[in-house]
Amino acid sequence: MDIIIDGIKQAFILLFTLDPEVLGITWLSLEVSGIATLISLLIGISVGTAVALIQFPGRRIVISLINTGMGLPPVVVGLFVTIFLWRNGPLGFLEILYTPEAIIIAQAIIATPIVMGISLAAIQHLPANLRLQIMALGATRLQMVWILVKEARLPLLAAIMAGFGGVISEVGASIMVGGNIKGYTRVLTTATVMETSKGNFDIAMALGIILLLLAFMVNAILTQIQQRDRPR
Amino acid sequence: MNSEKTILDVKNLQVKRGGVSVLDISHLEVPERKILCLIGPNGAGKSTLLLALSCLLKSFQGEIIFRGQMVGSNHTVFNYRRNLAMVFQEPLLFDTTVFENVASGLKIRGMGHDEIRLVVADYLERFGISHLVDRAARKLSGGEAQRTSLARAFAIRPEIIFLDEPFSSLDPPTRESLMEDLERILRETQTTAVMATHDQMEALRLSDQIAVMNQGKIVQIGSPAEVMNNPVDEFVASFVGMETVFTGPVTKMYDSTFVVSVSGRDVEAVGTVAVGETVVCFIRPENVTLSKGTSGEATSARNVFPGKIIKITPMGLFYKVHLDCGFPLASYVTHLSLENLSLREKGDIIASFKATAVHVIRKEK
């Protein structure tokens, strides 16, 4: 019991004294996962919308692939990104293994299918005639897609939350492609794993609380946007 | 009366789904500033025809000629679409306010903010929903939502509007009031309309022309009176030919009754109209009594016309007798009456009906 109480005490001390190392780790986590989520939004929403709207041969297979991708195990992604970025791997010339960029790539790969799958479902879920109605209002193709995306904004915001939530909390890929290098690629999850294995439960718990708070704050902000937009 | 100009001319329109023909229209002309109703059972191809006419179908064959110009290449399809509006059975409103919904077509066209406000206010007013301007579309009742959808369609001031069963999901009183408003606004704005419905009363009320559809084809097209009184085949007869419809000018007006001149015969009817107006009326066959002489119960009716029997059709428990009284008239009789009156085709008979049996569908100036 003492471990827990001491842990929580220590955690709050670290938090309120704004420990520079903890702050650095937190900031890097936000930055890396934020950028990865942005990339996944660009690719996920556009491809998801396109697949939802365009009929083409093999569409069903593509949709099942996307849905499977929503449950992509981070360690598998970590493994493949490591292989690709390895010194004599296909993308080894980039020399970005064990850098924050490598984590961003791995996390973007994890988040993209999540965002894509939810976007796809969100657009498909709109009434079938809505597209025709928008076309009949004289919209260009681009205007139509924009209006559809606006119509699906609530589930699309859920896609952002799911994507961000998925990557900020993942540890397998980050540790494999980032290497948990102190002050460089150490993020909240990898640091938590390391401190726990070292028996530093207080620091681990502090990092865990920060992680929870972070996830809560980002989701609270997005929920605020989501709900504010609904006219009464 | 407006001159009969064709706004939309359709030739050899064909739509196939999975190799099966679902629409096959050899020729259809939509007269400008008129209301054309497409009626037919579910699956007759009404919605498909509307989608094809508005170029919203992915693949179809045939020619659509709008104001003398063939709608073909991508460019002209887009330009053509900007001249039309479409209202579906479901309101399909955007998840925002009523104002934004009605403004959406105008925003798509890049209209300025101040002008949009004026146009939107105008059409909200016309459809009687000005008080809902800031309401969320999601919170509207069925009738309010369909009014918003119609206002959105009319706000872009289309030259032609396609309506796909716009009233069918509304309850009768809501439907009634919306139909009145729609008819008024269509006439006020002189918009050409093509409306699909499976309700023949709706079609009778609104249309200048009725096209009866079955299995992807137009089986008959003409004025309501033509289609109702002279159905071309049994399908049309069973679907629409339920009433006797006639059109004529009001020649006299009494306290509550008036006289319509129908092919030179005076028909008395009840209602408030003005002398000089042209009215479209119908009489249900069950309200027309047949007799051999002018004595007895028949004399209590205001309208008594001698006529000839054209055709007798068995309709199960009763017979439908088609008459020529100088204008076409139909009556239902039982088998007993058929024998008692010894009715036969080409025989003479006297038809009578009360003034209250004549229902005014529509008035025209």
Summarize the structure.
Chain A is mainly α and 232 residues long. Chain A has a single domain (2-54, 71-227), classed as MetI-like fold (Orthogonal Bundle).
Describe this structure in words.
The complex is a heterodimer of chains A (232) and B (365). By secondary structure, chain A is mainly alpha-helical. Chain A is built from 11 helices and no strands. In chain A, helix 5 runs antiparallel to helix 8, helix 5 runs antiparallel to helix 9 and helix 6 (128-136) packs across helix 7 (141-151). Chain B is of the alpha+beta class and 365 residues long. Chain B folds into 2 domains: 6-242, P-loop containing nucleotide triphosphate hydrolases (Rossmann fold), CATH 3.40.50; 245-364, RNA polymerase II/Efflux pump adaptor protein, barrel-sandwich hybrid domain (OB fold (Dihydrolipoamide Acetyltransferase, E2P), Beta Barrel), CATH 2.40.50. Helix content of chain B is 27%, strand content 37%. Chain B contains 10 helices and 20 strands.
Radius of gyration of chain B: 23 Å
Low-confidence stretches of chain B: none
Shape field of chain B: globular
Summed up, the helix count of chain B is 10
Q: For the terminal residues of chain B, how far apart are their CA atoms?
A: 9 Å
The string of secondary-structure elements of chain A, in order, is HHHHHHHHHHH
Give the largest chain-chain interface (CB within 8 Å). Answer: A-B, 18 and 26 residues
Low-confidence stretches of chain A: none
* CATH architectural grouping of the largest domain in chain B: 3-Layer(aba) Sandwich
Q: Structural class of the helix and strand makeup of chain B?
A: alpha+beta
Number of separate domains of chain B: 2
Strand fraction of chain B: 35-45%
| CATH first level of chain A | Mainly Alpha
How would you state the average pLDDT of chain B, rounded?
A: 88
